[in-house]
Structures are given as structure tokens and as C-alpha cells.
Amino acid sequence: MNFAISTRELTRVFGSFTAVDRLTLDIGQGEICGFLGPNGAGKSTAIRMLCGILEPTSGSATVLGFDLLKESEQIKRHIGYMSQKFSLYDDLTVQENLNFYAGIYSIPNGERRSRIAEMITMAGLTGREGELVSNLSGGWKQRLALGCAIICRPSIVFLDEPTSGVSPTSRRAFFNIIQKLANEGTTVIVTTHFMDEAERCSRIAFISGGKLLALDAPDNLKSNVLEGFLVELDLPDAMNRISSIEGLPYVRECSLHGPLLHVLLEDQSCVAALQAFTGILPRRITPTLEDVFIALAKRERR
Predict the structure, then answer these.
(1) Of 147, 219, 248, 274, which is least surrounded by CB within 10 A?
(2) What DSSP letter does each residue of the chain carry, written as one string?
(3) Could you tell me if 31 and 54 are in contact, meaning their C-beta atoms sit under 8 angstroms apart?
(4) How is the beta sheet containing 32-36 ordered, strand by strand?
């Protein structure tokens, strides 16, 4: 299989701090791969290396068949990149921003007008071409920034926390556009810490402390990582009960979710024993990606 991205032991060190620690993964063409993890996990550093912006300390990778270390300039010609800061010029209009990026990507003048029109339609900004970017809402800026990133029709688009600071409605609309791009064959790499967005990815790379903890489809992660019977407990003073519950021989994981405890049991037969221990009836729940991530992070620490 030809992978859009393939990395082997990719590492980036800043002084004594290892931001990305021996990252090894393969991402297929036309896939939406979500890099999921807390702030400071190494997601953005990994993206910047794969874009050819930041040189790896060690390891190797290919992006679209190009060697990351030797052919980074060729990689840059075939990718789009969008950061959470929306690299737009507030004192330019919608049209002028798109025209500027079309020039950066050396889009021929004969194609430029149709490409700009295509991006304006995609972003839902028809009729607002002459409006200053400074007057746009966060959601409009977000979609315009995506248009600027993909005006060159890249084979891969890297989206680094693209939905930070915008409304849930704008986030959903944005992911609908991403899904359409993937359906048309574009590979999408998106960093996020929103679990609902991660659910819409083809596969998720869980990253914590610079390390890849797991890479799989959302449903596979929930069934394979959380083997057992997951229940919820509404206990007073829940945080202080975690260690005692985790010490029970039939409990695999116990974590705090808001005011509630999620407890992973060996199987359904353990429910009665847990009820007897806590005095509260456990309620069965469907695992979430948050449950998966907490379980993976705790195992890594152990």
C-alpha cells in the first residue's frame, strides 16, 4: 500500500525536553487522521516536522513519497497548512487574502479566478468577497483560512487545532467540509482535543508526553482498549474514592469524569460486588474516547 505519510522513530528534542518521542505510524491516502491529546502532548511539533517546517532530531519519514530530511522543499509544494491562529490579513478583504495565497502557491493567472471563486463558495462567503477579514466572525475566518490553505489543491492538508475558539456550530460545519475533502481523495491530518471531532476521523492517533499511545479507528479503540464492562458511579467525595476502588481485584480502571466515576470491571458479574463495596448501584455506560484516552495515559504512566 502507498501511504501518504510514513514515519519511523521520528523524534524532536528541545534541549533536555523530548517533544516527540520515536513516533512511528502510517497514514493512508484520503484518510482523516486525528492527532488527539492534551496541550503540550507533541501534536503540533509532529505536524511541523511532517510539513518540513521543523527538522527532526532523529528518525525518518516520507510524505507523499518524498524523504522528509532530503526533500522537504518538494513536500511543501504538495501540502496545505492551517494553524489555529488563522494566518489571514485582517486589513485585506476576503478576495484579497485568497488572491495573496494564490500568488504564494504560484497558481497561474488563468486558473486563479476560478480557484478563488471555488474557495469562496466552499467557505460560504459568496457576496462577501469585498468585506474586510477583520469584520468576519470566528467561524467565517476559520473557513476562509481553510480556503487559503487548500487553494493549491494539496494532496495533504495539515490542520493544527483549526477549531479552537469557534462555536460548536462552526466546528460541525468545518468538519463537514473536511469530510468532503477526504471523500475527494485529500489526506487530512488534524490535531484536536475535542472528542466529538475525533469521533469523525477515520483513525485517531492518541499522543501523550510526545509518545504515540494508540492508532486505530474510534470504534476499534473503544472495544479493544477498554476490554471489560464499563459502569458509572455517582458517589459523594468521588475523587477520594478512586484509589480504594482501583485496588479492588475485579477493577481494571477507575477515573473521574466531572462529578462521576467511570469504572471498568472485568465483566458484568462484578457489578454486584462493586455495589456491595460502594453502596451505590453502578449504571452501565457506553465507552467514550475520553475513557479510552484516560485508560491509555494511565497505562503509559504505570
Answers:
(1) 219
(2) --EEEEEEEEEEEETTEEEEEEEEEEEETT-EEEEE--TTSSHHHHHHHHTTSS--SEEEEEETTEETTT-HHHHHTTEEEE-TT----TTSBHHHHHHHHHHHTT--HHHHHHHHHHHHHHHT-TT-TTSBGGGS-HHHHHHHHHHHHHTT--SEEEEESTTTTS-HHHHHHHHHHHHHHHHTT-EEEEEE--HHHHTTSSEEEEEETTEEEEEE-HHHHHHHTS-SEEEEE--TTGGGGHHHHHTSTTEEEEEEETTEEEEEESSGGGHHHHHHHHSS--EE----HHHHHHHHHHHHH-
(3) no
(4) 79-82, 156-160, 187-192, 32-36, 203-208, 211-216
The CATH code for residues 227-286 is: 3.30.70.100
Q: What is the pLDDT of residue 294?
A: 86
Mean predicted lDDT score pLDDT of the chain: 92
What distance in Å separates the CA atoms of residue 229 and residue 46, rounded to the nearest whole number?
A: 34
Per CATH, the number for 3-218 is 3.40.50.300
Model pTM? 0.87
Identical fold between 3-218 and 227-286: no
Domain borders along the chain are: 3-218, 227-286
**Which pLDDT band holds residue 1 (cuts at 50, 70, 90)?**
low
